[in-house]
Amino acid sequence: MDAAIIIVGDEILAGHVQDANAHHIAQRLAHHGHRLRRVAIVSDEPDEIASELRAQLDGPASIVFVCGGLGPTHDDRTMEGVALALGTELVPLAPLADKIEQLVQQTLSAGFSEAAFGNEGLRKMALAPPGARVLATSIGVIPAMTVEDQRARIVILPGPPREMRAVFTESVEPEFLEGTGETIAREEITHVFPESTLAAVMTELQARYPEVVIGSYPRYEDTLIRIAGPAHIARAAADDIHKFIEELTESDEGRKLLDFLDRRRAERG
Ligand code: ATP
Fold first, then answer.
1. What is the per-residue pLDDT for 183?
2. Residue 58 above 80 pLDDT?
């Protein structure tokens, strides 16, 4: 299944908070064999959220995660953005709205004013597009929800990473991700040649094996090549790369290259 993530938050765009939620969701999607096609970070503005969500609904993703901006304050406007994208109004979502109303009534009967607990903000947290459903979680006060559009399922998640992860593990993974993805095998190869030395062979192998994703990741001491995809194809591509590296290592030019690199490293200390 193809997926997209929309992270909502002025605080992330401003550099005040580093995004952790997209990273977690990306790891879990990969774990279950689903393909993440896009991560977008947008401001708290409903128009911006709606425009990104529309773009994702028109794209290849069949599940779109929208994360953050569900709280009671003025800057939590994600639901407005979702409703705008779907061309709907927001309606009180039962039974969540009843639960919040009970809470509100308890505070009023205890003699508190409407403002004491910010009742307006609390009631706002029960608003959702028609047809939305709350996802169960054992922690947190911000409800995660899902709503199905003809084009894709939308999963709306709280911003605080602890709450997001709890609902993701407890509800999202078992209901939408487990057992529906492809089994993705990973082959990893390291080498000490310049990354560019293997560029041409990797281009050729990527064209020969389009079913796998071949990546090259330079590190301090060596370069890691990772191949991900169906097991037998990843294995075949890895065998070809091993063979290329072996032949290069044993060739005159390969030996000269390694000597040259050793000398340069020694000179640098
Ligand atoms: P709240 O009721 O706490 O406002 P919310 O669902 O509206 O919940 P946000 O207002 O978007 O969430 O974010 C609350 C806090 O969670 C932020 O101040 C930030 O510290 C953290 N947070 C939100 N999104 C992310 C993210 N993508 N990565 C890391 N931290 C985040």
1. 82
2. yes
pLDDT at 221: 85
Q: Which residue owns the Cα nearest ligand 1 atom 13?
A: 159
Q: Is the pLDDT of residue 96 over 90?
A: no
Tokens standing for residue 156: 């709306």
**Edge-first strand listing for the sheet containing 144-148:** 35-42, 2-8, 63-67, 153-157, 144-148, 133-135
Q: Average pLDDT of 152-175?
A: 97
Does 245 score more than 90 pLDDT? Answer: yes
Half-sphere exposure of 239 (CA within 13 A, CB side): 7
Given a contact cutoff of 8 angstroms between Cβ atoms, the answer to whether 48 and 42 are in contact is yes
Which residues have C-beta atoms less than 6 Å from ligand 1?
7, 9, 11-12, 17, 19-21, 67-71, 76, 142, 158-161
Residue with CA at minimum distance from ligand 1 atom 16: 160
Q: Name the token pair of 51.
A: 């425009």
For residue 40, give the amino acid letter: A
At residue 264, the 3 state secondary structure works out as helix
